Amino acid sequence: MELLLGHRLQGSERMILQIVEAETSDPPARTADADNQLPAWCNVYAGLSDQQVRTIDESIVRCRVTRSFE
Predict the structure, then answer these.
(1) Which residues does 8 contact at the CB level (< 8 Å), separation at least 6?
(2) What would the mean pLDDT of 22-31 be, rounded to a whole number?
(3) pLDDT of the residue at 49
(4) In the chain, pLDDT over 90 holds for what percent of residues?
(5) Ramachandran region of residue 47, left (φ > 0), alpha (ψ -120 to 50) or beta?
(6) Disulfide-capable partner of 48 in 4, 12, 52, 57 (CB 3.0 to 4.6 Å)?
(7) What is the sign of the dihedral through the CA atoms of 24, 27, 28 and 32?
(8) Distance between alpha carbon 61 and the CA centroid of its chain, in Å?
């Protein structure tokens, strides 16, 4: 299971497999309008001024590492 998980379980971790009854009803139909809407977490800068957004952007540390696959 660790291969499926992608890492070894830590000492206090346990994997639990559970079998549940499949839903018998069809999932709600998606509308074209719903496909064009972004999730709520995309609005993280909502209500902030341009200066506040710039301040946040300047505080983000970006790692610009190039990889060579030779």
Answers:
(1) 2
(2) 70
(3) 94
(4) 9
(5) left
(6) 52
(7) negative
(8) 19
Query: Looking up tokens 């509308």, which residue turns up?
Result: 31
Alpha-carbon torsion, ordered 37, 40, 44, 47, to 10 deg:
80
Reported as a single tens digit per residue, the pLDDT across 28-44 is 676 666 667 778 888 88
The residue type at 41: W
Determine the Cα–Cα distance for residues 7 and 15; give it in Å rounded to an integer.
12
d(Cα 37, Cα 35) in Å, to the nearest integer? 6
What is the rounded distance in angstroms from the CA atom of residue 29 to the CA atom of residue 24? 15
The residue whose two tokens read 């990889």 is 67
Which is more confident, 21 or 53? 53
Residue 59 Ramachandran class (φ > 0 left, ψ -120 to 50 alpha, else beta): alpha
